[in-house]
Q: What sequence folds into this?
């Protein structure tokens, strides 16, 4: 197994862990962290798969940089919303009833 | 021309942001008028001379990013600007001076529209991911703008759904790049053949599933009713009418573009979206019939109407299915924008959120109720509305290919839509209780909803031009 394939496999595992976290966890901070793990997994796949003959491809690296910017913005928005929800309700989880 | 459709909303959104909270209405409306003109000009150009292409900054694919406008994207651009302009006028009259939702409404709408327009024009899978996120974050901001605990919770639920959706999409893009070394949709069409490796199948599955989550197709619809039902009326209208259609457009684009050779090989795969669409039509209509709050009823009706869009996938092999799908996108977009706008006016005037609280509005707010009824005609699919045209085509195609099930679903769905539309109308025509108060509302609110509803009905008479535009490649 080449290093690139190893990176990609770890990335897929991280992605799966992250998705499970976002969907199954209750606590909002944990869910936000899980989203970040999911994103990092994707970035590993992007960089890992695109290595050819041991030479890194610069295009996916530029994509990952853009992806990190997007992930930071999304995390900031999620944190701001979670904080606001905590101020309003005193809870850091979403209530179960769907008719919110 | 294409570049300005993306730059203009970015410009007026930034301007509105710098002017400070709750300002920026006039730059926004001026910008939207210009965008509408640009969208019409682009559509006219495309009908005349075929698909147009623009390499951003003079750098073409594979290194740079290409913008491509064909008939499908020009039609979606046209729909977006046609809905956004009346809704902007509506929103200006809707928000009270001290409404917190008004503070950042204009910048967020601008960024939302820039994301939408860029999405429709992109021909690069990664660039599409960026526009998806821009769109998603702006939409979440708009849902949360009211600032109430319920709205924040709905926004968070929406945010997690949209992030998982675009995460799955991005993983798909990563696998595609790893296999072929390019993300240009134009190049990929010729690269992906029927003998593509399993990795490409997984990538396609991930991308389509992620986008289905963002389109709120049953059973991924759980985030839509609280988000669309809880947001302020102009926001609900914009989200239900165009934002969910953007990810549907992408599924369609991938399905008939890069993944076309895969979907031809696996003939059973085409039934998967159609099955979910069928369930969406029934489940969404059932929930809409049961809903007690007016805006929840309309939000569940969106879940049902989105289901029709996915019924076209088994029929895509024959000419006209794409046109039927886009006609349904137009019909539902215009009608749902009108319906949410009318509902916002009704709720504002009566102070009641429940369907049961609407008694007597037929007398007091006839224009608004007429708009609601006209939009209902389109959702039910009665002639001469655009909804009728879309459903007629869908049934005709289904029958010519002996897919009786699809024709049956379309017909039953129309009947179910009639049930929930008439449950609202019936309540509105009851006599008002003696103690009910109806506050007068601005005429702008009443007439913008009416214009949108009338457009959704009258489009049925001009359907040929639209279908001609969609056919341009």
A:
């Amino acid at each position: 197994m080449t290093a690139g394939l190893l990176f990609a496999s770890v990335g897929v595992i991280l992605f799966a862990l992250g998705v499970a976290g976002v969907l199954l966890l209750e606590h909002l901070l944990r869910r936000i962290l899980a989203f970040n793990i999911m994103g990092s997994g994707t970035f590993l796949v992007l960089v890992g798969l695109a290595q050819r003959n041991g030479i890194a491809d610069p295009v996916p690296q530029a994509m990952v940089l853009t992806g990190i910017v997007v992930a930071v913005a999304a995390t900031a928005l999620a944190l701001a919303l979670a904080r606001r929800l905590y101020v309003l309700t005193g809870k850091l989880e979403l209530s179960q009833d769907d008719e919110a | 021309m294409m570049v300005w459709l993306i730059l203009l909303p970015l410009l007026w959104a930034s301007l509105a942001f710098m002017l400070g909270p709750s300002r920026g209405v006039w730059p926004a409306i001026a910008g939207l008028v210009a965008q509408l003109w640009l969208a019409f000009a682009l559509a006219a150009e495309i009908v005349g001379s075929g698909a147009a292409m623009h390499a951003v900054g003079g750098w073409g694919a594979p290194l740079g990013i290409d913008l491509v406008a064909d008939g499908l994207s020009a039609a979606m651009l046209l729909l977006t600007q046609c809905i956004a302009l009346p809704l902007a006028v509506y929103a200006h009259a809707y928000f009270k001076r001290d409404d917190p939702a008004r503070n950042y409404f204009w910048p967020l709408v601008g960024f939302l529209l820039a994301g939408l327009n860029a999405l429709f024009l992109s021909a690069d899978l990664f660039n599409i991911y960026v526009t998806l996120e821009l769109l998603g974050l702006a939409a979440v901001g708009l849902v949360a703008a009211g600032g109430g605990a319920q709205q924040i919770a709905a926004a968070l639920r929406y945010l997690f759904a949209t992030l998982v959706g675009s995460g799955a999409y991005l993983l798909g893009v990563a696998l595609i790049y790893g296999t072929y070394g390019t993300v240009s949709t134009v190049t990929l069409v010729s690269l992906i053949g029927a003998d593509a490796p399993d990795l490409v199948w997984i990538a396609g599955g991930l991308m389509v599933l992620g986008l289905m989550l963002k389109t709120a197709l049953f059973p991924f619809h759980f985030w839509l009713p609280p988000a669309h039902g809880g947001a302020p009326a102009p926001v609900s209208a914009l989200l239900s009418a165009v934002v969910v259609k953007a990810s549907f457009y992408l599924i369609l684009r991938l399905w008939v573009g890069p993944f076309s050779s895969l979907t031809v090989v696996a003939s059973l795969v085409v039934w998967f979206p159609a099955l979910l669409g069928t369930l969406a039509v029934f489940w969404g209509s059932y929930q809409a019939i049961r809903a007690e709050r007016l805006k929840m009823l309309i939000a569940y009706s969106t879940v049902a109407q989105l289901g029709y869009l996915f019924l076209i996938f088994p029929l895509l092999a024959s000419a006209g299915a794409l046109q039927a799908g886009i006609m349904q996108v137009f019909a539902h977009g215009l009608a749902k924008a009108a319906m949410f706008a009318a509902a916002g006016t009704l709720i504002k005037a009566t102070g009641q959120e429940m369907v049961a609280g609407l008694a007597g509005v037929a007398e007091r707010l006839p224009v608004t109720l007429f708009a609601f009824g006209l939009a209902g005609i389109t959702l039910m699919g009665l002639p001469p509305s655009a909804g009728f045209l879309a459903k007629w085509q869908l049934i005709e195609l289904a029958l010519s290919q002996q897919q009786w099930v699809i024709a049956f679903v379309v017909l039953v769905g129309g009947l179910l839509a009639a049930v929930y539309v008439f449950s609202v109308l019936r309540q509105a025509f009851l006599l008002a209780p003696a103690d009910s108060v109806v506050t007068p509302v601005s005429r702008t609110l009443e007439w913008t909803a009416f214009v949108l509803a009338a457009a959704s009905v009258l489009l049925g008479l001009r359907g040929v031009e639209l279908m001609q535009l969609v056919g341009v490649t």
Observations:
- Chain B has two domains: 1-265, 268-473.
- Residues 268-473 of chain B form one domain.
- The CA atoms of residues 92 and 469 of chain B lie 32 Å apart.
- Strands of chain B lie at 52-55, 66-69.
